[in-house]
Design goal:
globular; FAD/NAD(P)-binding domain; five-stranded parallel beta sheet; binds flavin-adenine dinucleotide; 573 residues
């Protein structure tokens, strides 16, 4: 594989105590080239899996824009002096794994030619591509301190100083709605409480404000109970079912219209995927994948980690997806294994400032009970649970992340097959803002217009552009049978043309926004407007059992604002 931009130099591990030759360093001579875009959790777990599973048949190259791997979860402990974020030289990690590394950022994919383009204009050919570029954090609550990771540790430290000097009496830790990783909000709140207790301060009020109905709802009932106990003990309030919108003039404003009086707010970011031309992405920039993590509508393009549309953004989940993708790729390379599908098991290590909590939940729809324990229930007892990455890093640094522990008997729990029904268990509750109770506000059904034309994913861009021009419309809905699978706007057509595709040959499915955000006829107009404002879009398809039945636009909502019979009870807009 040709390298682009600069080739990373291999160096020694700056923070390794013992760099052990734990892995086979032989580079294969085989011709099957695997390009992994990314240098984070999913990319490294996939590279390690491929080295093992591909039977030396695949040549693996990482493509990443920066030469460092950050172990971010420990960032929550840094402001309290309870841990230091480690970082690793990516070139050295790649060399240790026996894979190549090119510095550069994936910008586009030509699925038909099997070529990846970088932001600097380089082209890389691949036989299989794994996209593991992670997600980009965006501030979700204007006026709050957005905690994205190591870069914000210092700002939390400054907040603690402000508390110490008596300037701050109330702090809210906010989990935003939409794609996010909620654990750090709880960790920051509990560690702040523990910090205050240690300094004998009992006059500062702390609370978690979250769309979840129970603490860490994602982890299931057992974990919620355990975490509620920890919050109660630490004196941290829990304001559930709440969607924070902004912090202004000492008030944390909620979508319901209520406001909480709060001096300072620490909010987690909302996550989005970055735009990669040539493959269908959701409006939030995520990639839909199947159970082997193959990107929908492609043959040899896979995705793993935060960039996928799987609703849980978490390192352990990223690693599990990476394993599923790597095994499927190994089969493409000619390996004889039977690839296992992605079976999501959520494992979270909650730092509390005192004893940590190990939480585990089977999201695959299996029968396994939830777990909450103050002793390790996986090994090594790391924050990010990657089957190969966790022991690999532990062996490199010669350290166990939690000292003085011995491996428990029993080992890692058995995985169970993926059942999408399992994902309905509390996962989608924080994904969209709430609607008002029936009858309290006008609904989308009263304002929607008839459906724009429906096309199939294989329709060409040229056909669609002709249709748009003839009917003077700016978008079409893409269906598979009767089911809505995407939306294509005139802007998408322009993007494809600017990319250099031939409109008569390019299929709609490659350029549409996949799995668009939709509403139903009973969604309130207020909620529809919130969605459009939040996502920066002008239209929302209206569906009934996944079948498109109409469309509602911002203008329709604005018109309803002028309507004299509009009720004031609603979502506060
Ligand atoms: C403060 C904090 C605490 C967390 N705590 C936990 C925890 O306790 N447990 C847990 O499991 N998870 C935790 N997470 C989440 C976890 O870090 C992420 O879910 C995980 O890192 C996602 O892995 P990924 O490989 O998808 O993305 P990342 O690890 O973010 O890696 C993305 C990689 O892609 C590279 N990249 C970016 N753009 C491009 C491009 N265009 N082309 C090529 N490469 C690109 C990046 O440089 C990076 O190397 C936490 C996250 C934060 C921020």
């Amino acid at each position: 594989m040709r390298s682009v931009e600069s080739r990373a130099r291999s160096r020694r591990f700056p923070d390794a105590r013992v760099a052990r030759p734990a892995h086979d360093r032989r580079v294969t001579s085989d011709d099957f080239s695997v390009l992994i875009a990314g240098g984070g959790v999913a990319a490294l777990e996939a590279a390690l899996t491929l080295r093992e599973a591909s039977e030396q048949r695949a040549r693996v190259e990482l493509l990443a824009p920066e030469p460092t791997f950050w172990y971010r979860p420990v960032a929550v402990a840094e402001p309290f002096g309870l841990g230091t974020v480690r970082h690793f030289d990516l070139g050295a990690l790649a060399e240790e794994m026996g894979v190549g590394l090119s510095l550069g950022a994936l910008a586009a994919v030509d699925v038909d030619r099997r070529e990846a383009r970088t932001q600097a204009g380089g082209t890389l050919r691949y036989d299989a591509l794994l996209i593991a570029c992670g997600a980009v954090p965006h501030a979700a609550v204007p006026g709050a301190l957005t905690f994205r990771g190591p870069a914000d540790s210092e700002r939390v430290r400054e907040l603690l100083d402000a508390i110490d000097s008596g300037d701050v009496a109330t702090v809210a830790f906010v989990v935003p709605w939409g794609a996010t990783w909620s654990l750090p909000a709880y960790e920051l709140a509990l560690m702040t409480a523990s910090y205050l207790q240690a300094s004998g301060r009992h006059d500062v009020e702390l609370a978690i404000v979250t769309p979840e109905l129970r603490p860490l709802q994602l982890f299931g009932g057992t974990a919620s109970e355990a975490v509620r106990g920890l919050l109660d003990e630490a004196g941290v309030g829990f304001v559930g079912g709440s969607y924070a919108t902004e912090h202004v003039d000492g008030s944390l404003v909620l979508l319901s219209g209520e406001a909480l009086s709060v001096d300072r707010v620490v909010a987690l970011p909302r996550l989005r995927g970055q735009r990669i031309d040539g493959i269908p992405q959701t409006l939030e920039g995520f990639l839909d994948v199947d159970e082997h993590c193959r990107v929908s509508g492609t043959d040899v393009v896979f995705a793993a980690g935060d960039i996928t549309s799987f609703p849980v953004k978490q390192g352990g989940i990223a690693a599990q997806q990476a394993v599923a993708a790597a095994e499927a790729i190994a089969v493409l390379a000619g390996a004889s294994l039977v690839p296992r599908p992605f079976r999501p098991i959520l494992r979270g290590l909650l730092l509390t400032g005192a004893e940590p909590q190990y939480l585990r939940r089977d999201l695959s729809g299996g029968e396994e009970p939830d777990w909450a324990s103050s002793s390790p229930i996986w090994w090594p007892p790391t924050k990010i649970v990657g089957r190969r990455l966790a022991p690999f890093l532990a062996a490199l640094t010669g350290e166990m992340p939690v000292s003085g522990l011995e491996p428990p008997a029993g080992g890692v729990p058995v995985d169970l097959p993926l059942d999408p029904r399992g994902l309905e268990l509390g996962l989608s509750s924080s994904d969209v803002p709430p609607t008002s109770p029936a009858g309290e506000a006008r609904s989308v059904g009263t304002a929607m217009r008839s459906c724009p034309p429906l096309v199939e994913a294989r329709t060409t861009l040229a056909e669609v552009a002709r249709g748009m021009r003839e009917r003077d419309i700016g978008s079409v809905l893409v269906v598979d049978g009767e089911r809505l699978v995407g939306i294509l706007t005139a802007r998408d057509v322009l993007r494809a043309v600017a990319h250099g595709v031939t409109p008569g040959h390019a299929a709609v499915g490659r350029w549409m926004t996949a799995s668009p955000i939709t509403v139903t006829a009973s969604t309130t107009l207020d909620a529809a407007e919130t969605l459009m404002t939040e996502y920066g879009i002008h239209h929302l398809p209206v569906v009934e059992n996944e079948r498109p039945v109409g469309i509602v636009g911002l203008r329709d909502v604005t018109r309803s604002r002028r309507s004299p019979e509009r009720l004031s009870i609603g979502l506060g807009f």
